[in-house]
Structure formats: C-alpha cells, structure tokens
Amino acid sequence: MNLLSRPGRWETFFWPLLAAALFLAAWHYSVIWTATRVFPSPLNVEAGLAELVRKHVLWGDIVDSLRRVAIGFGSAAVIGIPLGLTLGWYPALNQVLNPVLQILRPISPIAWIPVAIVFFGIGDRAAIFLVFLGAFFPIVVACVSGVSSVPTLFRRTGRNFGLSPTQVLARVVFPAALPQILIGLRIALGIAWLVVVAGEMIAVDSGLGYLVIDSRNSGKRYDLVVAAMLLIGLIGLALDIGFRRLEKIRSVRWGFSHGP
Amino acid sequence: MSTEAVMTPPILDVKLRMEHVGMVFGGDRKGVSVLEDINLDVCDGEFICLVGPSGCGKSTLLNVMGGFLSPTNGSVSIDGQIVHGPDPRRILVFQERAVFPWLTVEGNIGFGLSKMSRAQRDERIAHYVQMMRLQGFEQTYPSDLSGGMKQRLQVARALAVNPDILYLDEPFGALDSITRLIMRGELLRIWQVERRTIIFVTHDIDEAVQLADRVVVLSSRPAKIQDMLTIDVPRPRNISSPRYLELRDELLKKIRRAYTV
Amino acid sequence: MSLFVRLRPVAFIAVLLVTWQVAVYRHPGQLLPGPVGVLRGIGDLLQHGLLLKYVVASLFRVTWGFLLAAAIAIPLGLTIGWYRRAEMAFNPLVQVFRPISPLAWIPIAILWFGVGDLAAIFLIFAGCFFPLLLTASSAVHNIPTVYVHVGRNFGLSTSDFVYRVLYPAVVPQLITGLRITLGIAWLVVVAAEMISVNSGLGFLIIDARNAGNRYDLVIAGMVIVGTIGLLLDLGMRSLERVKSFRWGYSGN
Q1: What ipTM score was computed for the predicted complex, to two decimals?
Q2: pTM for the model
Q3: Is B14-89+165-260 CATH 3.40.50.300?
C-alpha cells in the first residue's frame, strides 16, 4: 500500500534488526544515564537468564505454566466446542443462554480467584480453573459465530443430498465453520497464556508468573523479573506461531487468506 | 439527440500515445509477461474500446495508461508528455465498489473539487447530478443506491473534475443486462454533450460495437494488439442495420482468432 | 418477537438463581452465599457509600489507561499499517511483547510509579496498547485498494489523503477494535486492582475475602463487575450504530 518502491528481500531482516538494536541501545543507555540501581540493563537480563538456566529452576516453572495452560485450555475446548456448536445450531437455545454468558464474560478470570480458592484451594487446580474460564468464552463465541455464518445454502445442499441433520452438522457445517473455530481457538490460547501468568502471580507458587512476582518480592531481582517477562513473551509467541501452522493445513487453508 | 452523423472526431491530434509498452510482473526470472510491445495512438475525443478475453491484461493496460503502473518497457505519453503517475486530468472508473461509502452523492461528486469556491462547487455538483439523472438522491449514501446508480455516481465524480481522458474498466460488468443497455445509452449521451477521449475496456462484443469509434482487439496473455476495427456506423447506431451486423461479425471473427492464438 | 420468546432467557436466569439458592440452603455453613446473600451484600456496599466510590475508582483508571493507549497506539498503528518498512521493523518487537500479560508488568509498574493509581493506569495502558496497535494497522491493510487508487487519481496531497480517505475508511474497524479493547481494559483493571491498589472493584473482591471471608461481598463485586462490563460493551455497540458510521458495516 505504501507509495514507495517495493522493499527488497534484505529489508525483511534489516529493519527489524535495526529496530531491535535501537530499542536495546535506548534501553541500555537510559539505564546508564539515569544511574538506576534497580532497573536492569539488557546485559543484566541476559546474565539473569543464564543464572536461571544454571539453577535448573527455570525448566520446572516453564513446564508448570505450560501444563496448566494445556489442561485448562484443553478442557475449555472439550466443553466449549460442543457447547458452542450446539448453541450455533439451535438459535433458540442460544437466545436463552446468551445473556448469562454475556454477563459472565466481562468478569476477569482473576476476579474468580476467591471463588476458585473455595472450590479448589490454593494451588494448581485453582490456576487451571482460571485458565479454563479465560479460554472458555472466546471458544464458545467463536463456535457460535462460526456455525451461524455458514451459508444456509450449504445446509440445504447437505439436506438435498439426503444427509440427516446430525450428518449435516458433522460433514457440512463443522468443516465450513472450522476456519473461524480455529481462529477462536488461537485467540483463546493467547488469552490462556495471559491468564496463567496472571493467575500464578496471585494464587500459586510455581510457574513463570510466580517467578516474576517472586523475583521482585524476595530480593528485588529485577533482572530476573525482566528475564522472566522476556521468556513469557517468547513462549507466548511460539504458541501463537505453532497454532498458525495448524491453520495452514490443506483442509482448512481455504478459509484463510494469508496475505503478505 | 442530435441527428448529426459523428463518424470521426473533429480534431485529429494524437492525445495518448503508447510506444513499445511492455509489462512484466514479478521480477526478472520468474516474471510473468502481461503486456508485450503495445503501440497505440488515441486521438483527442475518440472513443476507443479495448476488447479481449478475461485475464488477457486489459485492466493492466488501462492501469499503465492511467499512470498507476509503470511499464517495464516503452512509454506512455499524453499531450506529448510522458506519464509518470496518476493525475486528475485522466480519471479511471472502476467496475464496482469505488464510490466512498462515507460520503453522500453530493459529497462523492464534489470529491475532486475542494480547490473551488463553495458556489462554484455547488453549481458543478448540481450540473452533474442532473446530467447523471441522480436528482432527489443528493443526500443519499451509496449504501442506499442501486448498482447502476453507484456507477452513474462514479462517472459523475469523474466528470466533475473535467478530465481530458476517461478510462473505464468494465464499468457495467457488475450490472444486469437491462441496466447495462441503459447505461450504454447514458454514456453515449454524455459523451456527445461533453466530448472527451474515452478508453473503455470490455469483454462484451456488442458493447464494443455499439459504443466505439475504434475497437482494439488484444490477444491472450501476454497481450499484444492483435487487431483493430474501425466502426464507421454513424451514431445513434441501429443495432439491426446491415452494416452494424457486418462489423459485429467481423469483430467476432477477429476475436476468435485471438482465442485460438 | 413474542413475549414468551423474549422472556425465555429471563426465565432461564431465574431458574439458575433458584437452583443456586437451593444449593446454598442445602449446604449450610459453607462460605459461598446465595443470590439473596449477594443482594444483601450489594445493599451493604450501597449503605456504606462504598459501591459508588469503588465503581468510580475503577472507571477512572480504565478511562485514563484506555484513552492514553488509544491516543498513542492508534496513530502509531496507522503509520505501521501504511508503511511496509515500519511494519517490518516493529512487528517482531510487537509480537514478543504482546503475549506478556499486563499483570506481569506489575513489578516494573510499581518500581516506576509506586503503589497506586498511576501504576494501575499504566497496567491498563500496557494491556490496551498492543491490541489497539494491531487493530489500527490491520484496519489500514483492509482499506480497499480502489480507494487508494481513487485518492491518487484525484491528485490529493498526503495530508488530504489521510484526512479524507484513510481516516474515514478505517473508522468502522477502529470502533470495533476500541470496543473489544475496552473489554480487555475492564478485565485488566479488575485484576490490577487485586494486586496493586487499595480501592476499586478488584480491590473489593480480594479484600472482602482476605479481611474476613465476606464472600457475599466477593460475589456482589463480581456481579457488579460483570454488569458494568456488559454495559460498557453495549454502549460501544450503540456507538457503532450511529448513522454516519453505519456505512462502514453495510458494505458498498
């Protein structure tokens, strides 16, 4: 869309590297110029990261966070997808249930912590419950919207070829809605990652979120804080990229336009 | 409507000249050649139709003429000056969805007129509202207009800035055939009142024979100028007259050759 | 829609509430209250003047954080969307920062701003910035190329083009993005208040539990959070429907 000439291939590497370099330089020098004793410079962060790896704590925390995401997200998908498909398929049902969902949705999963603690106590299960809550609503919404945006003529074609309603749902509507459902799942996964980190800052004592808050509380180790944040960002990005790969599989690729 | 026979435009100056124009997309090695060695002279006030099969490159040619694309080879010059980019002196009318949905009919027509005084602009807008038969819809938004009306609006917007050349890229392609017939008549009516050079892309043979002074037949990709046909039937054209049918037949033959080449 | 159909969801909610209340009766002595208890809790808050105070505090922080993020992220996002090189430059940085939960910024927020309003506003800013940035750049990408061609064809200057073509073309998508991001802001403020400030609805929720297991206030707080969040969303949706913006959604 830009009016200038098309960028060359070398530029796909040059510009981001330049931006990253400028960012790191600005960070580094502002730490030096403000003579702060607490806020880490990029080099501090790097050292902190190395320290975490050496102490072997890091791996455990990463696994904990990922495990909670996996279970929470997985259960949200297992429950949310069928529910969403049903609600999308029976608009009358959706009309009845929707207001309840609309009131529950704006309540941050974090706000559920006291309730979660009552049900599950402090620990893993509470965190998983929070992740479940965070992922559940986007998944249901995406499924409902995916099913209702399947053109009626697809459904009619299915019936025309003698399929029963269940078969139409399984063989026509579900594949047609799949691109949208996948997008909803990807977004929900991103949310799950945000929630697990936030939940670990409050309600459990392991995981990357806990690492962030603990590094500060026990010793103002801001180099570890930032190192943990960086890891959180990178792993979240990896999850997102991994999921996008799924979208590239042939049978769903038609629903996505992968632009430049 | 005037009964004067208009066979050739009164002025024979060359308005637009294309010399050895070629267009290759996508870099040198894997490049796709869309246009090859196009040479064309268009006279001032002429009505030219570019005809060819789908995907042959007619739209690309139009974009090159309009300055939206730079040709890989050769040059396009208008009034003797090489074309470097788009310019309000030559407006391109697209097939659809080109009117701005956030502006009313008046707003769209007045889009290119911001440098005029309020009074002049209003007068100009009113003139084209009338000419394109959009009275009563001045304050309407495009979402409430039919397809034919939206195209009339687009043409009105284009004419309002008084361009020398009007490029039309299958402007009636998205309309039903009855509306298309009406629009063709409208276009000719306007062209005979406010004479401009018109370059009109179409895949519809009848449209070309009904509208054009000259029809340029393009080959399939890479497009070259395959053939040319001068329509010497005076306007208004009787589509059942023998001469008309003869010319139509001839054009059909020329196009068949383009398909099999 | 017949009256019956319209009342169905209400009836459903009533059934849920009744089931909930019955479940609470059946298990006396446990912590969670029933709907009646929650209502009493809300009454309690109103009586002590706390409800209004906390709602205002939360809304205040959301407004500031959200508007600041919009003021910076939207112009920046539009620029990134327009200039391919700017996007190339900033995209990796954005992609790494985006998955970091706003709450993970709390230690830094407290370091820079201390415990209090500013820290909470910063967290909301952090939570809104990237979604708005991405919405704006994606809105620019979705401008039909035809509009760009027409703008160039009519010889518009750059500032003219931005004002008369780019901006109107992106407004519908921006408003949708603003609505979604406002929802995010509301989620973040509640979470942020649970950790880093001493007022607001999030604080109410965590404090009511910590200082005496007042679960009736906890759930009352949650209900209010949900209701206000829903109202904010509905408010933004009605903005989407305003006539002069409507054209963006009905297509051309």
Answers
A1: 0.84
A2: 0.84
A3: yes
